[in-house]
Each structure stands twice: as C-alpha cells, then as structure tokens.
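Ticket #4471: structure export looks truncated?
Reporter: QA, pipeline team
Priority: medium

Steps to reproduce: submit the single chain below to the structure queue and open the exported record.
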Amino acid sequence: MSRHVQNTDSSVVERRLRPIYEWLDAGNNKKAVQECDKVLKKSPNILCAKALKALAFLRMSRKDDCVSLLDHILTKKPVDESTLQVMSLCYREMHEMEKICTLYDMAVKLDPTNEDLQTQLFMSYVKVNDYKAQQQTAMALYKQKPKNPYYCWNVMSIVLQATRGEGRTDPAKRTLLLSLAERMMKKLHDDNKIDAEQEVQLYILVLNLEEKYEDVLELLNGPLGGSLQALNLSQVKLEFATKLKDWRRVNSLCKLILQESFDRWEYWVQYINSVFELIDSNEDINLSEGSFSNVDNTVEKCHEFICSMIEGGADNQFLLRGPYLARFELCAKLQEKNIETYEFLGDSLELFMEYFRKFGHKSCCVSDLKVYLYLLDDEQKIVFGSRLVKEVGVGGENIPQTMDKMLSHIGSIQLARLCGAHRNLPQEHLQTLVTALILHYRHGYQAHGKGLTSTDFGPSDNYSILACHLIYDLSILEGGANFIVAGLAVLETLLTKSPNNFHAKLLALKFYHLLGNGLAANNVFYSLDIKHLQLDSLGFIHCAHLATSGLFSVCALHYDTTLKFFTSSFKESTDHFTLSYKYGSFIKLDEFMDFRERMESSLHYMTVVFDRMVLSLMDCSSVDTLYNMEISFKAKFVDFCSLRDNRDLDIYLNWDPEFASQKPSQCEVAQESFKQDVNFLKLRSHMLWAVGAAIFVAKTGESEKEANLAALLQLVEEWKEMESELRCENPQPTPQNLLSYPPVSRLHGQLATPYQTCLTSILEFFVELCKNNLEEAEIKFNAAEKEIGSLVNKLETKLLIGVELPYFQPKKKEFELFVNTLEVVCLACVICMVSNEAVKPPQSKKGKKKLQLADMKTKELHIRLVECLKLEVNKLSELLVKWSSTDTKNDPIETLRSLNLGDESFSLQDSCLESYNLAYKEIQGVINNKVKILNGL
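Actual output as written to the record:
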C-alpha cells in the first residue's frame, strides 16, 4: 500500500514538473522560473523544482542566484535521481565538475546500496580524472554487485594511475600499479570469468604496457584469441611479433596477410623490413620448421615473392599498386645497405617509367612516386622529367585527346616540377608555361568537364592549380603583387566551374591575405565549411593574417566561433570517457584522453584566447566592463613548454622539389615558425597579465593593494626580461619563397611595435600613483610621456615609406603596423581608466588638508597623462585619414594579358578596396571610442 502511495506521489510530481522542462527546452527561462514558483508554492519540498529553478537562473545569467539556490539544496542532501541530474547539469554548465563528485558522494553515503548512484559517482570521478577515487568507487561497486564490468573499471583505473597519474613521473610506482593490474586480470582469467572481447582487450592492454609481448602472443594463440572478433588476429599478432623483433614470425605473418590482401601497403613495408633484419641477423632458418617454413631471408626470395604478387594480379585482370610500390621499397633498402640494385631490379629509372605507364592516369601516381624520387640522382631526375613528356606525347600544338591522356599529362608536369624542372627558369619561360597550362585547363574543361555536379572536381582543375604555383614563383621573382592578382583571376575562374574545389579555395585564401584583403579571405575561409577539429588544425591559415587586418568585427566573430568549438570539445570529451567505460572500450580511452590533451595544449587555442581578450579590451568603454573581465594573471594558466603544434602544414598541394623527400610539416622552417609563435604568445600573455593586474589593483580594496602592486611589478619585470632575451636572439622572419611555408610569425610585428616600452612605462607610473610616491611618479610620467609622444611619429615614418611602392604590395604590412600601434594606444587608455579609479582618495576626516594637497598633485599627474594620450589619439586619427587617402591603383592589366587572362582583375581590385575601406572605418570607430573615453576622464 505504501509503495502504491509513493508511486502515485512520484507521478504527481512528474506531471507538475513537466511544464518546467518544456519551457526550459523551448529556451523560455523566465516562464520556467514562473512555473517553478507555482509548483513550490503548492509543494515547497520538491527539490527537483528548486534545482530546475537554479538551472533557469543560470541560463538567465543570474549565476549568483543559481549558486545560492544550489547551496540551499545541498543542505537538504538530495538523493532522488531527477534532482541530482539537474544539479549536475548546473555544475557542468558552470565548469565546476568537482562539485558533481561532492554531490554524488553525499548521495551514496545516504543510500550506500544504490547501484545507480554509485555508478554515477564513478562517472563523476572519471570526468575530473580522479583515478584513485575511481578505483575505490569501482571496487565498492564490485563488492556490492560482483559484475565483470565493475571489476574491469577497477583495473582500468589502476592502469590510468600508472600511465597518467602518479606513475607518470614515478617509474617504481608505475611498475607496482601495472603489476597489480596484471595480477587482477590474471585472477579473472584463472577463474574463467573472462567472457567478453573488451575484457580480453584490457588484459592485452595491461600486458602491452608491461612490455610482456610474449605473454600477449601466448594469450592470442590460446582460446581467448578467438574471442577477438573486432580485431584481425593476424594483424594483432604481427604487432607484438614486431615489438619482440621476432622477424621470422613477422615475415611469415606479413606474407600470410599479403597473400589475402595484395594492396596492404603497411604490411609490404613490414615484410621488406623483416627480410633485411633476417639478412642482418644471419639467422639460419630451418625450412622444415612448421609455421616458419615459408620465411624469406634473402633478397632473391623477397624479389621473387613481389613478382609472384604482381603476376597474380595480372592473371586476375586487375592492377594493384602495392606490389609495384614494394619494388621501390626494396630498391630503397638495397641502396641503404649499399647493395647494387641493377642485378635484382634493373635500371631504377625504368621502374619509375613502368609505374607511370601503368598508373600515370591515376591521381595517386604522383604522390606514390614522390617519396621515392631520392633514389634518382640529379642527372637521372632531369632524364626522367624529359622522358615523361615524350611518354605522354603532349606538347607544342598537341593536346590530350582522352581523359586518361590528359590526367597522365598533368601527372607528368607535376613529376617534372618535383624533379626540379621549373627551378631557375627565366621569367619569360615561366610565363609561357603558365599560359600553356591555362589553355590546357580551358580545353580540358570544354572536352571533359561538362555535365559535372557542383560537388565534383573538374578533371582539368590541376592545370590551373599548377599554373597558380608557377604564378607564385613569378610573384617571388617580381617582388610585387601583379602576379598574385593574376593568380586570383585564375582561381576565381576555376571556382566558378568547380565551386567545391578546396585546393583552389586554400590557394585563393592565401593569395587574398597576401594582398591584405581580409574580407574576401574571410568569405573564402567560411566557404570551405571548416568546422570542428579543422578550426584548430587549419585555423593558422586565416587567424594569423586576420588579426592584423583591421577588421575587428570579423575577427571577433571568428574568434568566438573558434573558442566555442574548443569549449564544447572540452565538455563533450568527458562524455567520451564515460561512454568508453560504459561500453568497455578501454583501448579507445587512451585515444580520447590523448585527443583532449592535444586540444587543451593547442598553441592556436591559446593564441585565440589572448587575441580575443585584446579585442575585448580595445572595445571596452567602461570601468564596470573591465572589472567583469577575467584575465587570470595570478594563475598564469599557460604551460608554454607543453604547447602543441596542431597546424596541418601539409594541407596545400605542392610539387616543389624541396618537399619531395620530406613534408612541409617536417622542415626546419616549420619548427622555427612554431618556436617564434610560442615566443609571440609569451610576450602577448605577459602584456595582458600585466594589464589585468592593473585592473585588479583598482578593483580590490586598500588592504590588498600593496600585494597586488608587487604582483604587477613582478609581471612587468618578467615581461621586460623576456623581451630583452628575445631581442638578443634576433629571430629572423621565416622564408616565404615556397608556397607551403607557414606564414611569417606575428612575433616580428610585436617586436617592431613599442608594446613593452610604452605600456610598462605607463604601468610603472600607475604603480607610483597608487603608492602616492609623487616624486617618483613625476619621473615615471616623464618617461611615459616620452614613449607615448613618439608612438605615432614612429608609425607615420614607417607608413610613408611605402607610399611610392606598387598599390597592393605594402598594404598588408602597413595594416599590421597600424593595428599594433592602435592596440598599444587602446591598452594605454585601459590603464588610464583604471588609474582614474585607483587614485580616488579614500573618505577620511583626519589629515583632510594634507590629503587634498596630495590628491591635487595626483590628479594633476593623471590629467597630464590623459592629455598626452588624447594628443596621440588625435594624431593617430589624422594619420589614418592621410594614410587611407594614399591609395593609387596600379594596373596589372599587362601582366594579365601576358598570361592570356584578359582584363579579369577589376572585380578583384574592387574587392580589395572594399576590404580596406571597411578596415579604415573600423579603425576609426575604435579611435573615436578612445577619444570619447579620454574626454570623460
């Protein structure tokens, strides 16, 4: 009877709460609060209604009311599932995941036999990476409900303590923990309780971490190996045989896999490597030895096996690239061992020609051969390039008559470029080649590109892409922007016919940024439909340029989109962890954790965070807004040593000979670029932390002022020291002569602008004002006045140098200089605003006259700083008018006509002008805002 009453009460409560859920789902939080009040008026003890009201408050940005209500609910010690879930959602949205653990820990103590509550407690510890608490909770769960999943949760928690917790830095602790995990899994195995594939995978994971590879193979060869349905058993055995360096077993397993799948390239590499390991070991193989009777331990046997695979494919009327590429890998190994290749493989050049004849019409042919071009010497590469042209039979007045012939022709030009055929050519020859490629593109489109859907790439598109690479070479030779405009004309024509060709869009994006056309570049970037992880890996191609374009509103929108991805990614990653435990996907858990670490330590993410803060400070117009900003200068939350380079520098198609043997991401330029970007972030972060510390000084009371001023001075000194060290290193801009090189670091613009000298002089003046050291404040003011007074003059000198240069060439650099100077002025205004608040005298009757005299002197110094800044802001406004009126169109028509492009540049020039004019307006808007602020001080 009592149970019936309880169920009835539960259904009544659910019916009353339903409208609240509906209003919350609809996003009408105000209505949700009203419904909560109605329910609580009738039934004030329904905790779930209070929790829902707290959630509505949070979504109405009434965080204080939400926290107060949640604290009240906590005192009632809730245990019902609905209340706990709503409270957990509140804490999650406030990024206070630790409080969820406290919430469920309290609930479990009140109801220790509730399996669901204990499971939720375990998952809450998973979300905060508390591996020790996970282990204890999982063990308590297993003792109460002896189920294998809970036992495995316990084991996995121990493994994580060894690999990501205490054992990460303590080898002895790691060994001890992994040994415990192994004993626990062995006990489960000995008791014949392992009955799921996930449990076998966990056992293998533990043994793998202990490097007990022989035990893993023994396990795989036993009855448990057959339960691995999701994994290919031979491939798993191969992985551990390789780790054991059991090359006979590796060789045998590779052959077994390759006989079933001719084209598994990774196994061809392992097979050939095992052959040479066996040759080096001089191991005497007993051919009658069971499973290893078919082991190949000589070059002759290896070559014979490859040939048999090629013949097998030919007999079945199909061509697979794997066996043909295996000959190149064999050739590479032979050269590495200084063994003559001709006896086994014949002329190396003939291998390349044969491969091209068979696969030259496939898009993969060039990338396949590219990695092995180092097998040819310089003379052979020249011969190879010329033979390709003859092989295709296209040149002069001949044009490809079939699709395959056209694709082979494109491949031959790409390979010739990789062999260095386009290096050191005169400008006239390069222009002729560009014209020829454009004509081939037009013919290819007419002959084979009609009737394609909008999502298809045109078969002749790569002619235009190649032409743009050559045009980039011409722009480097020219040193101007005419050829970049010509390249954009080519790309815009291509994109009208193949609107989804992302290779063309990436090039257009780069070219627009080279012209300083941030608006068109932004449109191209968003047309790429870049989202999710690509905002991190590809963000560098846009963010670094956009930040200094003067398009502040566009920047803010882009930064917000990027930060929203990272925020949601951090939230969702915890769900991946809990789902991995729920479904026993322990082998995926490490991948999810690695991914989260990679995101959290992304250099791009941290750079966008600080750039967004700078934009917010530039836009700020009131002290209250400054006080609400969170600039965590005390925490210094950036670990610069652990920052990761997540940029995908290999995104551009490239056929430069410099990248034939290595990827752009592997070159020294990429590493130097990353180092400079990290140094840029160090300077920018310390600059912002110093400004944030000044805001905090004005925000806090007198009792904490001395300590906060000391923290501010320490940050200023760190910033000075850091910049001094960087200037001594004298970093040079990374070269831009190759299209795939990363953009020049913003570090150089930061060092070229007096951020540090100007802002630190004002901050030091601010400190002395706060301390009422008027004599010292006078000295610091004079230094600040000198720095501020020279700020715009230095900018004007640099800007007017470029007036006589071609129209597009200097604009990008000039915008960077202007935006950087404007940032200095805006941050100086921010310090001036907080200075105005900090130097207000406290209300006191004692020593009133003395205070008034001191206040008058302080106020006088502060007013002088305001007047100094007003003068510079007005000078900056005048300079903007003068600078923006120096635009004079240069005429790239002759360049376009020389490339057979006609007069296709007018819309591009108009697009650039539109971007520049918008940037001028936005810069003027910021300047006007600063004038208004200074007038009010």
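Status: closed, not a bug. The export was complete when the record was re-opened. Leaving a note from the reviewer for reference: Residues 1-8, 844-851 have pLDDT under 50 and may be disordered.
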